[in-house]
Design brief:
- The structure is a homodimer of 459-residue chains.
- The first copy, chain A, has 459 residues and is mainly α.
- Chain A has a domain at 39-215 and 351-458: Na+/H+ antiporter like fold.
- Chain A is 75% helix and 0% strand.
- Chain A contains 20 helices and no strands.
- The first copy, chain A, has helices at 3-27, 38-54, 64-77, 87-91, 93-112, 116-121, 123-149, 155-164, 170-179, 186-215, 220-254, 260-279, 284-294, 306-315, 321-331, 339-360, 370-391, 399-405, 411-422, 428-458.
- In chain A, helix 2 (38-54) crosses helix 3, helix 7 (123-149) runs antiparallel to helix 17 (370-391) and helix 8 runs antiparallel to helix 10.
- Chain A is globular.
- The model of chain A is unreliable at 1-11, 28-35, 301-305 and 332-336 (pLDDT under 50).
- Chains A and B meet through helix 1, helix 2, helix 5, helix 11 and helix 12 of A and helix 1, helix 2, helix 5, helix 12 and helix 13 of B.
Chain lengths: 459, 459
């Protein structure tokens, strides 16, 4: 064990001295205070510290998102061994909101690290990957996995099973690429672009499938309206990005009203776009990603943080004039706080909440039912194969990386399944199997992507 | 109008193009999506942009907290002219939580800017100010303002009116000192220290008054236990701060597991202390302030942000060796991100929510009732005079600055009044008058403090 490892362990020991005491105090909470937000404060601290402890997986070359998911799974299933002190986290509505806000901030950060011009270069490839990645699992769900694994169900059930397999949940993949600093790869951009297009297609499929199940047919008007809203939002974002972003950036660069301006403008753009995306029927993360693309940090570089600049100027005041000028020119870019650096702490605060909570919602006991588990494994295999196939449409890049990047399914699939359940088309058993599929695609993708990325590096 | 002002207005125009559209879309929201967090996202953006617009008050030398309060008052009372689109903000439980978290983060930031040694130097003065500032309004409430302005009430009612006048709400004053960069003044530390002690005293008074009203007497056991818990928390914090903080800081400085570690440790300390403070019966902000004092940033200076350091090293790689070394030594402190800089964006995100929401909860229509308004003005005058008197105990400093700094009353006073109302001791009319007193102390303090601070500067 190195000194650094010993120190890390020492640090964690000190840090965690307070936690058991706090949780003990928490367990004695009888709701005597009507104004008690303190439990939520404690849960946030517990989640953040757990996430940091789990980041030890980085020592084994794994992305920290894997650690966050795994520690979440452990925390969420402690109840299986009789420890239920952490159970309130799962039902805390504020933690749930912060978690959603976390993945919105993550996609905003990821949007900031790219821009619309770069995305357009991979646009066609992303479209092809998205199309194959939606059509293949939909067809496979309806005609193969459905009838084979679960014979005798209505065709409506097979329709819904197919639909739940279509939508990629891009958060996991995006986080893996970000953790491993690979967002600049064309494969990363293709997956991100395909996930956005995928979300639009999923929206249309959901509308069609719901209409078929409830009314027996498809109303062309409503489908066109749904599609139009989503496309209007995306087209509007792209046009706004191309026309206005440079101007907004230049304007902003000349305004100095406190250090918070740059941050507020950036985060407000993110939130308004997330809101508009949801109003257009898309996932809020699609809006946040679009906002990040529009706010290309290139246009955001010219803000000065007066406090840091003044500190620096004072510090070098005693140097001779020539050196002073050189110092200033070198220091220049670092005396201005890039928008990514401003957003990063909010990301550190909120993003781990999303992934730990995702892990916590994994119900390991669902896997104890062997017949359901077998069906789930069949659905999972389909989920894997059909998205790997979609990677073949990516052209002259690492097709496996794109294909595996498209694998994670998440909330959208679960929402589809929930709607199917509410329409009495999806049974409880099939719903459980779909949940298990989501778990497998979520937990297996990070190590596979890590392996593929490291293999590429070695070449 | 200067070019800069024109640009600011141009910028705001562009920024706000999306808002009316968004709010229009919001007003058509019929809750068709069970998973709709988008409204809260929009409200956060609305609040943050409103806060930034209101920061134009800085051009008139006023602290931006005043702008945030005033724009909050305007937004919250638009309903008086028939505009009720912003009303949902007031009842959004997530906005309420983010607002509370905002003031917790603010007091944490303010704690970070001081340390325990500096606080101990003003400890006695702070204790005297707190004592006078609790006893004077309590006595005045019971024997003067109560019987004079509201004759014929029970002695229990006067007891409660006195109690509501005791507790200083330190958020407003702290923010004014921070906005005007005056946190280093001894007056600022005295007010902060007195507010902490004040909170302990208020706690004891509430326990005594509640016991007197409900059981007709005071149980010494319960009072001792309440006091002991609060003092245990404070003493524990101070001892922990003195003994452990330097060691934790040095340990942390040697650990490099990603850039988020420093941030996570800091914010988790803040949250756990806020939690423990509330468990000890104190306000969560007292805990957050204590956490900030303990995490003296001096011990936190030695973290390196690998990304920035690498960027810098690459940038200066082409310079000659001698210059390179000089550059590195100058740049050194700025390649390491201070904990304040990491917390600042979270502050920019959450702190304005607290102050805008505080403004929004000001009910202007409460002031339309003349008899209540007159009683309220009498209570307000008492609230002002008794805390100004407390400043006289501050010794050899600007006594007026300390006295006026102690004036703002807030949540604690309202909680007392609410308990009194629930015990049928405080009538609806007196409750309204107390609310108006809180409004006046909140809104008048920032401009008065600003005036006093500028006058001191000129001397």
């Amino acid at each position: 064990m190195t000194i650094m490892q010993k120190q890390t362990i020492g640090l964690m020991t000190i840090l965690l001295v307070l936690l058991p005491f706090s949780i003990y105090a928490a367990s004695g909470n009888t709701g005597d205070n009507s104004h008690d937000i303190s439990m939520t404060l404690l849960w946030i601290a517990v989640i953040l510290l757990a996430a940091k402890i789990s980041s030890l997986v980085e020592r084994f070359g794994q992305p920290s998102v894997l650690g966050e998911l795994v520690i979440g799974v452990i925390m969420g299933n402690l109840v299986l061994v009789g420890i239920n002190v952490l159970e309130p986290i799962k039902t805390d509505s504020i933690i749930a909101f912060l978690s959603e806000l976390g993945v919105i901030i993550l996609l905003f950060q990821i949007g900031l690290e790219s821009n619309i011009d770069k995305m357009k270069k991979v646009g066609l490839k992303a479209f092809l990957v998205a199309s194959v990645g939606v059509i293949a699992p939909f067809i496979a769900g309806i005609y193969l996995v459905g009838p084979w694994l679960m014979p005798g169900l209505s065709s409506n059930a097979y329709l819904f099973i197919g639909a739940t397999l279509t939508a990629t949940s891009v958060g996991i993949t995006a986080r893996v690429f970000k953790d491993l600093k690979k967002l600049h790869l064309p494969e990363a951009r293709i997956v991100l672009g395909a996930a956005v297009i995928d979300d639009v297609m999923g929206l249309i499929i959901l509308a069609v499938v719901s209409a078929v199940v409830t009314t027996g047919g498809v109303g062309l008007g409503i489908i066109s309206w749904i599609t139009a809203k989503a496309l209007l939002f995306l087209a509007g974002s792209i046009i706004l990005g191309q026309l206005l972003a440079p101007k907004i950036g230049k304007l902003l660069s000349k305004v100095h009203t406190g250090t918070g301006m740059k941050f507020t403008v950036a985060i407000s753009f993110c939130l308004i776009f997330a809101f508009l995306a949801q109003k257009a029927g898309l996932a809020p993360i699609v809006g946040a990603f679009a906002a990040g693309l529009i706010l290309d940090p290139v246009y955001f570089n010219y803000f000065k943080d007066p406090a840091i600049v003044n500190d620096l100027k004072q510090e070098i005041a005693d140097y001779d004039a020539g050196l002073k000028q050189k110092l200033m020119s070198v220091i220049h870019p670092y005396t201005e706080r890039h928008v990514e650096y401003l957003i990063a702490p909010v990301g550190h605060f909120l993003v781990p909440i999303f992934f730990v909570l995702t892990g916590m919602n994994v119900k390991l006991d669902a896997m104890f039912n062997m017949p359901i588990l077998l069906v789930a494994l069949g659905i999972t295999a389909t989920a894997f194969v059909t998205k790997i196939v979609s990677g073949l449409a990516a052209g002259n890049v690492n097709k496996l990386l794109v294909g595996f990047g498209m694998i994670p399914r998440g909330e959208v699939g679960l929402i589809f399944a929930m709607i199917g359940k509410n329409l009495n088309v999806i049974s409880d058993e099939i719903f459980s199997a779909i949940v298990i599929m989501v778990i497998f695609t979520t937990l297996l993708t990070p190590p596979i992507l890590t392996y593929l990325l490291k293999r590429t590096e070695k070449k």
